[in-house]
Every structure is written in structure tokens, then in C-alpha cells.
Amino acid sequence: MTIKKHSFQAEVAQVLHLVTHSLYSNPEIFLRELVSNAADACDKLRFEALNNAALYEGDADLRVRISFDEQAKTLTIEDNGIGMSEAEAIDNLGTIAKSGTREFTSRLTGDAKADTQLIGQFGVGFYSAFIVADSVVVETRRAGAAASEGVRWTSRGTGDFEIEPIERAARGTRITLHMREEGLEFLNGWKLKSVINKYSDHISLPVQMEQEEWQEAEQEGQPGGMVKTGEWETINQANALWSRAKKDISNAQYIEFYKNLSHDFAAPLAWSHNKVEGATEYTQLLYIPATAPQDLFNRDKQAGIKLYVKRVFIMNEADALLPSYLRFVFGVIDSADLPLNVSRELLQESRDVRAIRDGNTRRVLTMLEQLANAATAGDADAITDVADKNATDAQEPEAGAIKEADKYAHFYEAFGSVLKEGLGEDMANRERIAKLLRYASTQSESVSVSLADYKSRMKEGQKAIYYITADSLGAAQSSPQLELFKKKGIEVLFMTDRVDEWAMGFFNEFDGTPMQSVAKGGVDLGDLQDEQERKAAQEAAEQFKPLLERLKEALKDQASDVQVTTRLVDSPACLVVKDGEISGQLARLLKQAGQEVPVNKPVLEVNPEHALVKQLESTSQFDDLAHILFDQAVLAEGGLPADPAAYVKRVNAMLLGAASA
Ligand SMILES: Nc1ncnc2c1ncn2[C@@H]1O[C@H](COP(=O)(O)OP(=O)(O)OP(=O)(O)O)[C@@H](O)[C@H]1O
């Protein structure tokens, strides 16, 4: 016998230590993980067999079987799926390849309580077997390989595992759990059935158990018991959840299916399940999650959409089926039209796929509109049409379920900034996306002002929707560019997401009203400015001409122009960029991201009414004061002077001058 010992990868050992040493609050999830792995293995076989039917070895009835032996204290999960070669067993069961699980191990703290909670959130796949078992034996053979190429993998969940070649006539994988004390409750037909129904009902393959019958005791006076008949019975519905009629699916089942799909521990905010008919036929089941995954902001994150063709699993993360700005959505698409051998490359070009993608996009936007409307109406009944059923009215409402009216705010906090990418990415739906956007503003600290709200509050004579982009709410609120707007009571939207400035580059008007950055171009308040103010500004400009010339000359390396402004009230100066040029804020973001930034010198605008500006006329330190004004304008918008030491020196010189005067 050739038994080889292998050590687990360090991260696996860490996970196993945790699984076996901390009391696990929800032990039954091991069954969900193992049955779902078994079903995945069958899906993989079905997919590979599309091009090579010989892999079925004459048996195409894929199924998962669960059996138990009370005497031996074992529970066995067996599938006739793809199986594993020796190398695959070593690799798949001895290392952690999935980035999610690696991320999980990197967040382990060593504090058993916190870590146990974490485990509940991430799930640990195959290793969850050690929650209930003190030793696990995996016997497997890859489909298509010879019977002699079977392999037995054994581990007690400590630092290492053993690998041994075996004869195995059956393809697929059998996992035998030697139960520890905590696992004995699962060696019971009723218990197993109820757990499998809970977690695996939506699985499209039959999950079978040995049939049991009640038998009276042979001797009178002795209790009877359940005995196995030797037959297998299918205990789940064994048809894909999405292929069933909506009325036959409970909310709890929808939620459980979502959790399986997403590995999210929280219930989704909403879902929509439809059979789409017409030129392209498909079934669509889409979910809006309540929580954002770690990698949401990575634009390479794959969409959480699984693609099936006529119930046959084709691929995970079918990102051609949704635009990137909706990458937070999870779901299943089952197409009746696509060829079974469709590849990722083919998906990109297919007309059917484009139709599905458009249909999915519209559906998600409709769901979001429903959530947004419910928030406005504050009405729990508002969502009945599209997001057919929601977590709040589930049969078993989840603890901490989010109220209908709060769902949109919840969604927006998690995913709003991703949705904004749609302004640049999806021209066809730009108006619909715009209606879903929410901002804080000079009139609202919370991110709750829609563009329609804004428009309904616009002042008589106001011609644009005003906004300012900044690094943070605080920076936006104290921006000098707002001074005139505040004085006149004109609302300005605060755009403080990184993506805002970029997104606004694609979004020039909403519902016929132009979008205008208050930090760009000349502010023309139109009819909001009275004749007197306009005249005063013109006079000031005339009077300031010589001074402006001197300022321009002094700052010619920093500013493209110097102008007199009426937009300032309390501040002496501010920077603006010309329409169509990128702002200082975006330039800083791009620089941080290591990108080349075009050098646009900003325009310095000065407030002729400000005492410091007035002082310019008479000061003997004109050059220093000019530079200080410029650098302060940079500071006020959240930037840093190009030469901070020189700035400090100049300010100190001025302070000392003032002190000795
Ligand atoms: N029954 C099985 N048949 C064939 N391969 C399996 C089986 N169970 C597990 N594996 C292999 O072991 C790997 C690790 O399984 P594990 O459950 O830890 O992670 P996962 O399935 O990749 O992720 P998750 O369970 O979170 O979806 C799987 O990806 C698969 O390749």
C-alpha cells in the first residue's frame, strides 16, 4: 500500500483549526456545502459531456445520494459527477484557491467569537465537514479515467491528509464523515430530510436517501423501529427553482436560493422572477443584495449571474448578461435559444445575449425604481408588481429584516456609487439611471435628494441644476464656490463619490435642465442675479483691470487667467476650471491612481469686496500675497500648494509683518 502524507496549506490549517475548535452555532450548514459541491460536480460532468458523451460511462442519470449508519456513526454523501484525479484531490482539498475564502482567512483575528461569526458569513465549503466529523474520507474517481485511478483522501482535520490510490468502479465522489458527538443528531432520517429540504430543495438534480419503513419489533413488548428497504427515494423537488411557477415558490425558498447563489448571509432586498417570451426566450431570476461584497469597486469583478441553457449549467459569472454598472446583481438566466456549447467569446457576439442583457438591465432598473418609490411613499405595499415577494413578508421573516421604506436608502449606500457608472456606460438608460440618483445638498445632510426633488424646489428664474464635486461632504459644505449660492438660497448638490466627476462628464442635462458645476466656467445665475449686482460686477471688473494684469503676471506659472468674480462672499479667491476641462479634484484622483493627468492651469477668481484683495493695491509684498491667495484657493478645494514650504514661509513673513506693523 502506498499511502502518502501531505500537509495542508497554511490557510487551510487555519480554517480547520477554527472549524474544529470553536463551537459552531449552525452545524447543519455542512450538509448544504457538501450537497452543493456534489451538485456542482454533476453540473461540471454534464457540461464536459456535451462534447464527450463517453464521460457518462453509460450512466447519465446524475444524482446525489445521502446515507447513514448509526452503528458505525458515519454519514455518506455520494455523487456520480465529474470526480477528481489524484492531483485534483490534493489541490482542491488541500489548498484554498478561492479568493473569497482566502480573504476570509486573512480576516481571522484569533478571537474565537468574532471568527465564528465570520465563518457564518463566508462559509468554508468542503471544510465545514469537520464541524460534525472528526475524520473525513473522500473516495473519488474522475469521469473517463480507469477504475484503477481511484483515490482515497483521508484527514482528521489536523495539519495533514493522506492520499492513497484505490480501485473505484464508480465514477464521482463519495464523502464519508465519521461523526463526532456533535454530529450524531444527523444520523437520523427525519433530521436529514428536513435539513436537505431546507437547503437543497432548489437543486436541479435528485437528492436521494435510502427509503425507511416502520417495522414492529419481532418480539412482543419491544419497541419497533425504522428499517431501510434498500430502495432510494428522491427527497427534494429536483427541478430547478427558477423553472417552477412563481406561485409554487415560497419567499423562504427564494431567499435560500439567493444565499446559495451569492454566499451572502443576509436576505436580498428584492428579487424578480420572470419568464420572458418573444423573439428571445429565457427565464430570469435576479436579486438585489443588501450588502456590498469586498471587491465591488473592482470593475473587473464578475457579474454574479449563472447561465443555464435549457436547465443545463453552462457557466458562472456570465458577465455578458448584465452591464458592468449592475455587477452587484446576483441571479440565474436560463436561455431556451442559446446553443449548449456557447463559450464566453460567443456570448459577447450573440444577438440573443444582447436581448437578454437589455431585458435584464431594464428589469433591474425597474426593481430599483420600485424600491425608490416605496421609499418615497413610505408604503410597505408599494412593491407588489415586480419584486413580487420580499423578505419582509417571508414565511419566516429574517431577524433584522429591512423595512420596505428603508430598502432604497440601504441599497443606495451600498451600491449607489456603482450605479453612477451607468451614466457613462449606458446611454440608452441614462435618464432612468439619473432618476435613481440621490445626493446630499446645501439643503439636506443625508444622501436623499433626487434630481426631481431638486427641480421641484428650483427658484423662479433658475436655469440650471447646480452641483459641486469634492472629496468629502465636509469639503463640499465649506467650499468657497458655494458662498453666493448660499446667500441667495439656491440649492447645490454635493457630489462626493470618486466616480461623480467622471460620471458627470457624460451627463449634461436632466429632464431638459442643464447640469452645471459651480466650480466650472463662469457662473451665470441668469435671472437670479439682479441688474444692480450685474452692473456692480462689471464696474468692479473695469476698475480691477490693472490689478488683474499684475496678478496674471505674478501667477502666470500657476493660473491660466485671473478674473473678478461675484460668486464669492466671505472668501478672497477660488479656483475654477474652464468648461470641458478636468477639475483639480479629478486631477488629484487620477494622479493618486497613477494616471497621466493633462496639465490644465485653473482660473483664479478673486472677490473684489474682500479686504485681502483690496490690500493688494497698496501692499509692498504684492508677489507674496498673490501667491498666498492662489495657494489658499488650492487648499480650500482640498488640494495642497505645489510648494507647501514656500507657502508657509510666505504666510509667516506676512504674519510677522502684521505683528510688527
Ligand atoms: N463532490 C465533489 N466532486 C468533485 N469535486 C469536488 C467535490 N467537492 C469538492 N470538490 C472540489 O473541491 C473544491 C473545493 O471545494 P470547496 O467546497 O471548499 O470550495 P468551492 O466549492 O470551490 O467553493 P464554495 O463551496 O464556496 O462554492 C471544489 O472547487 C471542487 O473542485
TrEMBL record:
The gene is htpG. Belongs to the heat shock protein 90 family. Homodimer. It holds the Pfam family HATPase_c_3. It is found in: Cytoplasm. It comes from the Bacteria. Its main location: cytoplasm. This is Chaperone protein HtpG. Residues 589-661 are annotated as: C. GO terms for cellular component: cytoplasm. Keywords: ATP-binding, Chaperone, Cytoplasm, Nucleotide-binding, Stress response. Molecular chaperone. Has ATPase activity. NCBIfam families: PRK05218.1 (NF003555). One of its GO terms (molecular function) is ATP-dependent protein folding chaperone. Residues 1-344 are annotated as: A. SMART domains: HATPase_c. ATP binds at residues 33, 37, 79, 84, 92, 98-100, 121-126, 173, 344. Residues 26-183 form the Histidine kinase/HSP90-like ATPase domain.
